[in-house]
Fold these 3 entries.
Entry 1:
Amino acid sequence: MRFTAFTDYALRVMIYLALDPGDRATIKDIADDYGISKNHLMKVVNVLAKGGYVSANRGPGGGLELARPADEITVGEIVRLTEDTLQLVECFGADNQCSITPACTLKGIFNESLQAMFGVLDAYSVQDLVKRRTELKKLL
């Protein structure tokens, strides 16, 4: 399984904002520091804001900040929010056309592995992602 660039960027935004809690950043700041598209980042921030993870304020003194404390937001929450589908195989979807589905155990195995992965992702908060704060700040 591979996560989309959208999820990658969403996690990077969360890391960026968690590095300096209480400080506000702009989309331009984040895009410039990571070397990624400002336009794409705007879409990512919009989803994070609608999901209640980022507070976005316009105008003088505006900017982005975490809407909740970093230790209250799990990595799993962000992945679930930003991934369009977690359909690992065809039989996970409503349009399943696989002829062996009634007798196949693969769906159950993949579902078990997906649940295990989210068990791990849910065990880590955004705060855990910035434990190496000093090193991260030097890289940005």
Entry 2:
Amino acid sequence: MADLASNIRLAVDSGKTSLGVNGVLDSIRQNWAKMVIITSKNKPDGLQEILHVAKIAGIEVVRFDGDSMQLGAVCGKPYSVAALSIIEPGNSEILNIHK
């Protein structure tokens, strides 16, 4: 998780990301998202639409091993983040982690 977490933080700080369920769905529909990260410890019904839309779009979905408060902390935000999309990875290697 440390490698994923450090790459998430680097992508948030140096690249372009979209946070939250609505932002992620918008980035997928606009064909901007290159990868989606969702928390593994979350209510499954809240993320079902993201999983469905990402599958149709052919976008990789990575599960973050933690809850939304932990993902928010990794992103450097003082609030919970259930999902984020990577639009531009910036200086991170996040797009190469699961390839």
Entry 3:
Amino acid sequence: MQTVTVRLKISPERFQAYYQGVVEYVMAQSTDGRTIQFPARVLRPFVSHQGIHGIFEITFDANLKFQSIRLAQDGR
């Protein structure tokens, strides 16, 4: 398994497109400079009135398929 750390700052308005399913994937740059893509739906538990803000650890399997996400540090 591989873990990637990303810092996310997504406004409520921007996340609405993800939440409604208009946009299915989030693309983000990891803290080590890699560009990653993961399903937007996995962020739903982390949405607040301010959007999504924080440092997240995302785990992928050997085939680079999403496995899990956790909030490592709240960014608010």
